[in-house]
Design a protein that fits this description.
This protein has 231 residues and is α+β, with helices and mostly antiparallel strands. The protein contains 5 helices and 10 strands, in the order ααβββββαβββββαα.
Length: 231
Amino acid sequence: MATSGTTNFTLDLSDIMEEAFERAGSELRSGYDYKTARRSIDLLMLEWQNRGLNLWTVRDATLALVAGTSSYDLTAEKLDIIEGLLRTDAGNTSKQSDLTMQRISVSQYAHQTNKLTQGRPLQYYVERKPTGITVHFWPVPDATTSYTFAYYYLDRIEDSGKPASNNMDVPARYLPCLVAGLAYQIASKKPESMSIAPALKQVYEEQWNLAADASREKAALYMAPGGYNDL
């Protein structure tokens, strides 16, 4: 039996909206229907960013640290830092080294006795603001060597945009979840569809759990109760 031989199925915005409206017992007919659906999709993307770690949004970056400067503002698309390392002698093939750093809370940072102490940075505190994040280092970088903060961060999911031909900034495996979530959002806004909204909500949560489980980290985790003992 012949198969297509292709594996590039996707849905653009118009396809996603049409499918969602059909599931909600309605049809995409007007410009306002398109506008309200696009708004719901963008709100849905913000919800997904609040739900947890979306692995396809993980990016890596570096930040050159300046002696005597403790705080650095990052660009607005960076939502949070999930791992940070201190890199010394960046770019030197024989000397470059990544050293473990500890992320601390605002309370731990506030209780540092002298926040002006200079040395090799050991800890960082991430201050999350409405307009972006600021990273504070302790101790403050000194001038003994060049320091680079190498980190992995969560990138903001791109907006839907206006053209109906746009694709969403999500993996294809998340499209069932996206359609289900949008169908629930649409049903919640239409009086004639509110009776099926709870059922659509259940389908949406099931699709989210399936997608989130498929996207979880697959690396092995080793735990040693009580730590390791040298014998």
